[in-house]
Amino acid sequence: MAEATQFNIVDPGIEEGLEKLTEERKNEVLSKFVATLKKGRFDVYVNTCIHCGLCSDACHWYQSFKDPIYSPVGKVKQTIWEILRRDGKVDKDFIRRAAEIAFTECNLCKRCSMYCPFGIDIGYMMNMVRRLCHLLGVVPLYIQDTCNSHAVTMNQMWVKEDEWIDTVFWQEDEGQAEIKNFYIPFDKEGADVMFSVIGPEPKFKPQLIQEVATLMYIAGIDFTFPSFDGWDNSDMAMYVGDFETCERIKRAHFEAAMKLKVKRIVMCECGHAFRSVYDVGNRCLGWKAHPIPVIHAIQLYYELLKSGRLKVVKKIKEPVTLHDPCNVVRGRGLGKYARYIMEQICENFIEMTPNNEHNFCCAAGGGVINCGPIWRGKRVAGNSVKADQIKRTGAKIVVTPCHNCHSGIADIIETYKLGVKNVFLVELLLQVVEIPDELKVEY
Amino acid sequence: MFELLGSDLLYKFLRGPMCWVAFILFFVGSIYKIIRYTKELSQEKVVFVYVKPQYALKSYFHWFLPFGTRNWRLHPYMNLFTFLFHISLIFVPIFLSAHNLLIYESWGISWWTIPDKLADIATIIVIISCIFFLGRRIFIKEVSYVTYLSDYFILAIVFFTFLTGFLAYHQVYTYKIFLNLHILFGEIMLISIPFTRLFHIWSFFFTRGYIASEFGYVRKVKDW
Amino acid sequence: MKESWDWESKDKVIANINEWKEKFIEVREITPSPDGEKVAAIVRTDEGFTVCENGKLWEGRYDRVWGLRYNSLNQPLALVTKDYEWTVAVDGQEWENRYEFIWNFILGTDGKTIAVNVKTMEQYSVAINDVTWEQVFHQTRGLVLSPDNTKAAAPVQIEPLKEGEVSKFFEGVWSVAVDGQVWDKKFVNVWNPVFSSDSKHVAAEVRLSRTEYTIAVDGKPWDKIFDNVWEPLFLPGRNQVIAPVKTSKGWTLALDGDPIWDYFTQVWHQKVSPDGNKIAAVVATAIGEWTIAVDGVPWNRKFSDAVLEPVFSPDGRKIAAVVKESKDPFKNITLFKNPDNDRWSIAVDGKRWEQTFDMIWDPLFSSDGEHIVTKAEIDGKYYVVLDGKVGKEAYEALWLPQFSPDNKKLLIRGILNGKYVRKVLSLDEI
Predict the structure, then answer these.
(1) Which of residues A102, A117, A139 is at a domain's end?
(2) A135 and A151 share a domain?
(3) Are residues A245 and A219 in the same domain?
(4) A151 and A96 in one domain?
């Protein structure tokens, strides 16, 4: 029996899944899983790990609790090693704990791969434990619901086809109050850029669509949004281990871009979606790279500033720090671009320590925040190290260019009473860039 | 018991057939596993297409360099012992003059050797490192949490190989017993490499090289 | 139809789009008619949005107009809204029906039957040519018209589902409605319904449980279960369905549930030749090795980045597809162009055209199958490309050229110096 933690959280999705799980199904899935553990990457990893514990300090969960059950290798021990040791003959209590570990105690941030001397990909292993839980039907309720939304609507938030279109129309109307003839073109074949967003934008933060479209409009970028499925780039299916749904939504996203004959896909300030499009979903489908190149919003802003298409006319005066989202900084090396932007738009930019690809995860990523509010307390407690990191900077604003980071850091700020505000990059940019007179609406 | 341990018969067995068995198992076992893994990893489709030697080499360099990575700098003692231990572990058996002599006697070939004094110091380093690693396994919670009997076993093989070698060289107590034990442990170590987690001497190059390629080539960040 | 078009006038300037841009507050979605004689755009006047065709405005003024296109009768169509009501307008004439929202604006094979998804009071349905299905649903997603243009099919949600109702979701709340009639069986998910060539049957991708996928024909699932499936396709003239399916061995093509091809890393966009004898599909033989397989045999030539759906020549002898390659796709990914990467072209029967482009559109065969025409982008300008040869003229905008009925001429519709022009060129004049 794996160790119990100090949090006694009961997740209805996990419990119901366990209840419905038959002995037959359990044995069938686990015996297949054990066979996968005994070959290829898994077998190499299991037979290479020398149990040195050097990955522990890489993990914000371990750093926050200082309890070895939260160390990366500790999580592998409680799941993979144990399944191997018992040759797959595990009980439901074990599966409950394995699901808790894989879904709520690991953000798949891959920082540990940089700290393991062997470069063992523990994030991959934990995601495969999630895959096991998916096959068993034992998945936290909220993230399963999100995955169901993906399967039905091809977006993360049950946004219906008409709701998406209507939201963009609405944001165009709103934008016209500020910018003359502001236009968010749908389905413009041959545009240079297809901009894609995540479901929560039309659902909860529609103004972000307007804001980024405004930036592109000012910068003279030839952009479009798809009016049809594929407009959403997010992917909780990948984090559930439901790679079939992952395949389906990534196909819709890339095929939307190919149908529209665009030259680039530019993605909103979101990290997990970038990971899914950049190096998970594409591979699931057989692409080595991307049929249409993929650019994250940070890089868009960087290139617009660097090329002079956007001009900075004033700077943010308050001290600002930057949270490096794992999936685009450790996942794509965009740290240097983010820093260029910060230097351009802030008078007083203060680094967190450690930073860039060594930055600590927000503890919300990897689908953890998507496991729902019942896990919030644990998630925030599991990242006191992030609270300390922010506090030490003395900054008044934390830039979080990723949706999950944004929500996760907001929870940390609130719980640890840090008294700072957190913003997306686009919000700061719109405060400092020049809007040419001919585009301003006169009143 | 002692008589057997110190016997010429055992010596001849360990120096003769057992030696062959050990080397054959070591080489054949290692090659077999490398081929098997290579096959399985190519079936996984998404592994080798991303492996790029230039990124792998850069990463090896940093991880082989003392204090060359952030994690090494965070763990200076561990880093120091790991380095000295592995260097000694590889150099002493291969370049020890006594080992060379044996090979010369058997096949008439020999190569460069290190001075016995240096080998002696290196052996002591290995022994002390083993004690250091043992200490970590017992006293550091995140290490003891993931320590199994097999970890002690692996450590013990190395420890006793070098300890008996050291004692035999210095002719402490009964030379013959320690010599036989030394050869025995050494052979167990060789055989263990392909069949235990000592396999990491080979797999390191794959696991590190693969993640380095994923980080360097695809993600465009360093992995150290 | 094409026979009646003007194939003699070499060069006609139809409208000065730059003047429109001066005259109106905004000009959106510039679209020419199929015969090239007309060009329309959504324009904004002081009274609101409307459609401008060859300089003439529709009577109606709207809060918004979008989705402008032409039908085969050379009439412009668009979705229009006024006072929070949406409808379809054909040549300025509005449908009688009004809806809270309409979308998925599609045209039938005849080029004139119009179908849309509609919503009124949170109830979803489908309308064809101004006739709305009687049945309403909790949600519809997408729709498809039958080849005879009399029926539509759409995935429909037939029971309410609140967020977080995971168990109920897995019991299945989705099905397919054909002409408003729902299949007997409910599914966890339903995607991409498709009609048979006689318009009598409908097949769709269905998900039976968390991990079980298959194809259902007229509501009856195949008896074989797969790890995943893609879009089904009826064989012409038969009630047999082919669909890509995924098993533990990889992707293959299945006919009525039985694999008929080898296994690949990916299989999709299967197409049947016009004579019904050959099946071609996009396949990946390994990660990053894309090509077309014909009856299960992949072309030798592979493409690193992408291959789009195969296009058969009318006689079924040739297959063309858009292909894309990069030297090193992970090198220098920038917002702007990278000359080594992202090169688009067309491959015909496994042989790629020599020249590559910044972007290329779908290949169009001449009716005798001898020529292929398309449009391509080079440095921000558009060109006619015939059999791999780039045309002389650089257009600011260009629409897909059309072959004349005798395949000796091309109709070209494009914008030159701000003016919409219609040209007829013989093939050697390109």
Answers:
(1) A139
(2) no
(3) yes
(4) no
Same domain, A100 and A170: no
- Residue A377's domain spans which residues? 320-432
- CA atoms of B133 and B153, how far apart (whole Å): 12
Domain spanning B2-31+70-196, CATH architecture: Up-down Bundle (1.20)
Please return the burial class of B118, using the count of CB atoms within 10 Å of its CB with bins 0-12, 13-18 and 19+.
middle
C301: closest CA of chain B, how far (Å): 18
Contact C286 B46 (CB under 8 A): no
In the chain, the amino acid numbered A63 is Q
Spell out the per-residue pLDDT of chain C, length 430, in tens. Answer: 799 999 999 999 999 999 999 999 999 999 999 999 999 999 999 999 999 999 999 999 999 999 999 999 999 999 999 999 999 999 999 999 999 999 999 999 999 999 999 999 999 999 999 999 999 999 999 899 999 999 999 999 999 999 999 999 999 999 999 999 999 999 999 999 999 999 999 999 999 999 999 999 999 999 999 999 999 999 999 999 999 999 999 999 999 999 999 999 999 999 999 999 999 999 999 999 999 999 999 999 999 999 999 999 999 999 999 999 999 999 989 998 888 899 999 999 999 999 999 999 999 999 999 999 999 999 999 999 999 999 999 999 999 999 999 999 999 999 999 999 999 999 999 8
**Separation CA A202–CA A195 (nearest Å):** 13
Total number of domains constituting chain A: 3
On whether any CB of chain B is under 8 Å from the CB of C265, the answer is yes
Query: Is residue A226 one of the residues assigned to a domain?
Result: yes
Of B45, B46, B217, the CB nearest to C330: B217
| Whether residue A326 is found in the same domain as residue A371 | yes
- Chain B nearest-CA distance from A77, in A, is 7
Preferred mutation among B41, B42, B43, B45 to probe C, highest tally of C CBs within 10 A: B45
Identify residue A338 by its one-letter amino acid code: A
Residues pairing with A194 in the sheet: A224, A265
Two tokens at A228? Answer: 């049809």
Residue pair B224/A330 in contact (Cβ under 8 Å)? The answer is: no
Which chain A residues are Cβ-neighbours of B215 within 8 angstroms?
Answer: 113-114
C386 phi and psi angles, rounded to 5 deg: -115, 120
Distant-in-sequence, close-in-space partners of C1: CB < 8 Å, separation ≥ 6:
C34, C72
The DSSP code sequence of C2-31 is: GGGS--S--EEEEEEHHHHHHHSSEEEEEE
Element housing C52 (H / E): strand C48-53
Q: Nearest CA to CA, how far is A341 from chain B (Å)?
A: 19
Q: What is the DSSP string of C202-230?
A: EEEEEEEETTEEEEEETTEEPS--BSEE-
A134 and A95 inside one domain: yes
Backbone angles phi, psi at C226, to 5 degrees: -130, 165
Directed axis angle between helix A122-136 and helix A23-37, to 10°? Answer: 160
Q: For residues B133-166, b (16+ Cβ closer than 10 Å) or e, as one string? A: bbebbeebebbebbbeeebeebbebbbbbbbbbb
> Which amino acid makes up residue A429?
L
Q: How many CB atoms lie within 10 A of CB A443?
A: 4
Q: What is the pTM of this model?
A: 0.97
Closest chain B residue to C328, measured at CA = B217
Does one domain contain both A205 and A288?
yes
Q: Which of A99, A120, A139 represents a domain boundary (last residue)? A: A139
A122-136 helix and A92-104 helix, angle to the nearest 10 degrees = 130
**Does some domain include residue A2?**
no
Enumerate the residues of chain B whose CB falls inside 8 A of the CB of residue A328: none
Buried b (16+ CB within 10 A) or exposed e, C51-86: bbbeeeebebbbebbbbbbbbbebbbbbbbbbeebb
Nearest to A10 by CA among A98, A143, A100, A127: A100
Q: Are residues A301 and A392 in the same domain?
A: no
CB of B43 less than 8 A from some CB of A: yes
